[in-house]
Amino acid sequence: MKEILKKLLFNLQKKLVVGLQYAFPASTFSDSKGLVLGVETASILKNMSEILGHDSVNLSENYFYDFPYTFEPSKKNRLAGFFYRCYILACVVPRYSTVTYIGNDGLINFPDDGRCWEFDFLKSKGLKIVCVYTGTDIRSFDKMLSLPQLKNMDTVATYHPYILRCSLDTREKNIKKLSVASDRFSDLIFNYPVDQISYMQSDAHYLPYMLPDEFFELSEEHKWLNVEKLVVLHCPSSPIPKGTQIVRAAIKKLQTIGYEFEYVELIGVTHDKVLSELARAHIVLNEFYAFVPGVFGIEAMATNSVLLTSADKNIEPMLPEGANEAWVVTPYWEVFDNLKNALDSPVEQLQEQAERGYRWSKLHGSHSQAKRYLESKYEQI
Fold first, then answer.
1. How many Cβ atoms are within 10 Å of 151's Cβ, its own excluded?
2. pLDDT bracket for residue 89 (50, 70, 90)
């Protein structure tokens, strides 16, 4: 019954979009050349729209962030938001030349075609389509588990299925549909080929990290002056897939054998709170089942913290050069050993590692660097 209702709503939205485009034709173009839409995740929606100078659509509220967007259907009630999203697709999006989708959501709710109908509608209006994927939105668990280089290794595909409230077979079918739609309609795709392995056949490009330039002007070097007790920080957005259980075991063992340090664990707090703790953290434990660093990891290096993470250029070759020197590569079975080694290291040695991470993150994670890279990619479509 639920699936039948979703199909009815999907078909209703298609009819609304077709009708609205004639009732309210998009006759004038926006001053902005492009539109970026999606669900805000790790500030990517806000940062990418700013860097490109594009307008933005936030499809779902995220109380961790309080950024302004050009269009916010998520702030309307459910019924009004339902119609408003159809209006945006029919009458607003066609005013632009390019639309960038971040994640696997679209303006049409409950699609059963991987966004094929929505993409086809926009293509009929002459728009260029860019797809940006950030992780679980496109990652195939089946394909990740079958990768030869990950044989006998735990990954996000090992644990994420336990916390997702959905049929894994249905999810895998949806990932295939998303991949097919992206291959068929996208003019540009950003995705990691290993860490976010999917069914897409098209060439994918590296998505740069995008921290504001001023973020690097507050490098927090002073945290390394007169260190009396090291501060260790862990801030998982989703504890089990990030390896929090392993982190806690390592912390407990180190405390049990007499190591003295301050451990801070943040879960479900605002972004401002995360940044305030990063300002004083010496060692940051990011995530331990992924092969690229999360945005939190880049923020850690940008604030002169030593980063421990399982991200590894030997596994994910799309990472920029110098990646494995910027942080301490830490597979999940080495969390205790590498953290112990860091705590045993002289402060001067830790500071040198933090400075390597800072330089790498500034080179590969700032707005200005990302702007040059992204503009060059968009100019090619």
1. 8
2. very high
Residue 332 confidence class, pLDDT cut points 50, 70, 90: very high
Distances, alpha carbon 96 to alpha carbons 68, 132, 348, in Å: 20, 18, 52
The per-residue pLDDT for range 6-54, each reduced to its tens digit, is 999 999 999 999 999 988 876 555 667 899 999 998 889 999 999 999 9
**Nearest one of 49, 27, 52 to 40, comparing CA atoms:** 49
Strands 262-265 and 328-329: unpaired
**Residues contacting 270, CB < 8 A, separation 6+:** 63, 64
Q: What single-letter amino acid sits at 101?
A: Y
What is the separation, in whole angstroms, between the first and last Cα of the chain?
43
Distances (CA, A) of 204 to 186, 219, 316, 324, 377: 11, 32, 13, 22, 11
Q: Does this model's pTM top 0.85?
A: yes
Q: Which two three-digit tokens encode residue 219?
A: 């490098």
Q: Which two three-digit tokens encode residue 254?
A: 């180190």
